[in-house]
């Protein structure tokens, strides 16, 4: 059976362009992670991000997207996603901040997010971050040819559920990505396995679990963007863009292609089949 119409299939050359965009996002997020400390404003982080992205010859994909005013989303504490950077939002010791970043290179998109603690954070917040990040990697590990889309969704959900009673956000989901940031198919963070389109070589998706310490109910603030937990409980959000390749998942927004992330969840066999840059370039030449 052919893949469902509407899911963009990329050539190996096009995946390499997406890798370039992914690396810009990865490097930008590393710079931002290192800049997070008490006293820094989210507008400071946005300025750093825009300089980093444009300095790499790329374009920030968020800026102007449906009127969004900044190059990154900065979501602090009970903000789940789409927090707008502001000069008067100043980070304090013990806060957690999700930083979401997207870049375009030669028309191809990369999109990733991570959540960082500011200084020392409470142990339960540290666990919240770990649970969300682990769930992301469990989902990414399923991004392989022949698997079904909801194998990814189910792996994310099962990972979170096994870790405790966290709320999994359902109103916001991951997405296909390529010549646009948001493409078919939607990638939920929950569901039964074995459903949805079959994953195949040349597809790329952004997997992005969002979880909260409390209930999974959300609301949007009056600015029309900021998504918060209805019960004001703390939220975590991690995201990577991954390409489905014959050799396994290639995490385009991870500097190492995903090797360390898969090793950390005890999936070295997945990492072992990941085409690193040299390998996939070799495939291109061959
Ligand atoms: N990067 C977000 C996502 O993962 C979307 C950002 S919305 C924007 O889907 F408006 F800020 F661009
Ligand atoms: Co995304």
In words, what does this structure look like?
The structure is a single chain. The chain is α+β, with helices and mostly antiparallel strands. 32% of the residues lie in helices and 23% in strands. It is built from seven helices and 15 strands. The strands form four sheets. A five-stranded antiparallel beta sheet has the order 8-7-9-14-15. The longest helix has 24 residues, at 12-35. It binds 2-amino-4-trifluoromethylsulfanyl-butyric acid (MF3) and cobalt (II) ion. The site of cobalt (II) ion has 5 residues, from loops. 2-amino-4-trifluoromethylsulfanyl-butyric acid is lined by residues 62, 65-66, 68, 73, 82, 100, 102, 111, 206, 208, 239.
Number of helices: 7
Coarse morphology:
globular
Give the rounded overall mean pLDDT.
94
Unreliable stretches (pLDDT < 50, length at least 5) are 278-286
Q: Determine the fraction of residues in helical runs and give it as a percent range.
A: 25-40%
Distance between the termini: 28 Å
Bound molecules: 2-amino-4-trifluoromethylsulfanyl-butyric acid, cobalt (II) ion
Radius of gyration: 18 Å
Spell out the helices and strands N to C.
Answer: HHEEEEEHHEEEEEEEEEEHHH
Question: If strands are numbered along the chain, what order do they take across the biggest sheet?
Answer: 8-7-9-14-15
Please provide the count of β strands.
15
Largest pleated sheet = 5 strands, antiparallel
- Helix/strand-derived category reads alpha+beta
Strand content: 15-25%
């Amino acid at each position: 059976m052919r893949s469902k119409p509407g899911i963009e299939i990329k050539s190996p050359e096009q995946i390499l362009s997406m890798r370039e965009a992914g690396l810009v996002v990865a490097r930008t997020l590393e710079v931002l992670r290192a800049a997070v400390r008490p006293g820094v404003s989210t507008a400071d982080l946005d300025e750093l991000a825009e300089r980093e992205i444009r300095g790499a010859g790329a374009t920030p994909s968020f800026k102007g997207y449906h009127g969004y005013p900044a190059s990154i989303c900065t979501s602090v504490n009970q903000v789940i996603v789409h927090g707008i950077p502001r000069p008067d939002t100043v980070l304090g010791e013990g806060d957690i901040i999700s930083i979401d970043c997207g870049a375009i290179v030669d028309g191809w998109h990369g999109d990733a997010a991570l959540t960082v603690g500011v200084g020392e954070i409470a142990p339960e917040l540290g666990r919240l971050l770990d649970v969300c990040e682990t769930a992301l990697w469990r989902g990414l590990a399923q991004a392989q040819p022949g698997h079904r889309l909801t194998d990814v969704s189910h792996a994310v959900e099962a990972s979170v559920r096994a870790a405790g009673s966290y709320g999994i956000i359902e109103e916001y989901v991951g997405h296909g990505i390529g010549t646009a940031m948001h493409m078919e198919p939607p990638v939920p963070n929950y569901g039964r396995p074995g459903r949805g389109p079959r994953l195949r070589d040349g597809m790329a998706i952004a997997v992005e679990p969002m979880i909260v310490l409390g209930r999974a109910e959300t609301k949007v603030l009056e600015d029309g963007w900021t998504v918060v937990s209805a019960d004001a409980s703390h939220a975590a959000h991690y995201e990577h863009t991954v390409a489905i390749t014959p050799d396994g998942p290639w995490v385009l927004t991870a500097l190492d292609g995903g090797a360390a992330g898969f090793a950390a969840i005890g999936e070295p066999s997945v990492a072992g089949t990941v085409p690193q840059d040299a390998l996939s370039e070799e495939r291109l030449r061959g």
